[in-house]
Write a structure and sequence with these properties.
Elements lengths: L10 E3 L8 E2 H4 E3 L5 E10 L12 H13 L16 E9 L8 E8 L10 E8 L5 E8 L5 E5 L2 E5 L4 E10 L12 E6 L4 H15 L4 E3 L4 E5 L4 H12 L2 E2 L7 E5 L4 E4 L4 E2 L2 E4 L3 E12 L10 E12 L4 E4 L3 E2 H10 L4 H14 L2 E2 L1 E4 L1
Parallel strand pairs: 1-17, 16-25, 20-22
Antiparallel strand pairs: 2-15, 3-12, 4-5, 4-7, 5-6, 6-11, 7-8, 8-11, 9-10, 12-14, 13-14, 16-17, 18-23, 18-24, 19-22, 20-21
Length: 366
Amino acid sequence: MNSKRSLLLLVIVSLATPVFADRVKDLSSIAGVRTNQLVGYGLVVGLDGSGDQTAQTPFTVQSLKSMLAQFGITLPPNVSPQLKNIAAVSVQAELPPFIKPGQKIDITVSSIGNAKSLRGGSLIMTPLKGADGNIYAVGQGNLVVSGFGAAADGSRVTVNIPSTGRIPNGATVERGVMSGFNNGSHITLNLHRPDFTTANRLSVAINKELGEGTAAPVDGSSIKVTAPRNPSHRVAFMSMVENINVEPGDAAARVIVNSRTGTVVIGSHVRVAASAVTHGSLTVSIKPKKDVIQPEPLTDGETIVVPNTEIEIVEENNRMFKFAPGVSLDEIVRAINEVGAAPGDLVAILEALKEAGSLKAELIII
């Protein structure tokens, strides 16, 4: 096979391999136990001439004047300072559940003006507010910026994004958020991927470990679990629940096609009904058959029927694809790859099979 017919298609096929059990903590989350987004507006100072151009960002000057006024410094109304070492920024953070006042969280600082770089800057004390408008943390500190830029003779080179940086442990929590974890006599587990089979198996596994009636599925996404009211007992109880192993239900039959990269992901339950597709000069024939294995003479063995599949590839002018009923797509893809077909060939075949109703799966093209 020459270079022009080299393998151009990356195909990932989920084969029927043994299913391993997952922990409850990996399959679900506790209702009401969640992170909360925080946002704030502040100033970064100490930049090396890479800050906002105040003519295009008047809000930076206005913010500076407001900050100076808090320290008793008032600028004349007709004075507009030309500052290149200051940048207006937005500050984002996530407030984890159960966090307490005085603890630290990481923050991300991003320029909202035309600053070229935040490298070397320091964030001035910035209140971080939640969706309810209350202040939950205060951020301040020196930025860590991974990107950088360089310019000379009209040329410019930029690596990563120098207008965004992070401050590890850059915000101090001032107020916590009540999670409701200790309220009521029940705890609800929400599956990351809703599935009726997984919900039922998770409920059965909890009842098997902790007693019948402890858990009951509410729908395909939620499981209601009876929990102790005492907070310390409830924590110990959830520690046992989240470490119970559960075998999740199989995912629905899907074929994911990335039209830009040629990547195709095929689930293990995907099947093809009897069909034929004409696609140029390539012929792929897949014929399932059964082999009979006989035991040795004068033994107690039994006759066994073993399924087998014959794949025949012929390059002709009619390019007819013949698919027998029940053939899995991984066999079809393997046959197409052996002749070095381009990604567009497989995508065209999958679309044709879907339109004909022969593809027993959901076809998703991204």
